[in-house]
Amino acid sequence: MSKPPVPITRHGAERLQAEVTRLRREERPHIVEEVSTAAAQGDRSENAEYIYGKKKLREIDKRLGFLLDRLERADVIDPQEPVDGKIAFGHWVTVDDEDGKRSTYRLVGEDELDLTNGEISWKSPLGRAVIGKKVGAIATVQRPSGPVDLEIISANLKRPSA
Of the chain's two ends, which shows fewer C-beta atoms within 10 Å, N or C? Predict the structure, then answer.
């Protein structure tokens, strides 16, 4: 049974590919060299550098496997201008909460979220609440503390200026 495609923006796919390149060309060869040096020191069973290096190699290989799987299944989506004002994957969405606090988020794939930059997963509670809605609509987000209503102020391809 094949795994489902993974929606991602072009920028997100490029970031994943850059991480693969960095792991393959820089980190993994560096750790392999450290493990070789540690192995040459003799008894590997009590050699902390060797044991740690092997563990680090397994972590890098696991991450590479994950990234390569995601890139293989990537469904690169180039966001389009909002059609009929409807919010879609890749859009920057500005919302006002019940207290009038304004926030802006971009709906991206699960593998590219960056909360410090306002990029959230389209599968997040907020993402699910606003996707497909029109500017001016009210979206109800379910939170652990209870639902909150958000008014959708705008949807754009480019991040609105502050």
Answer: N
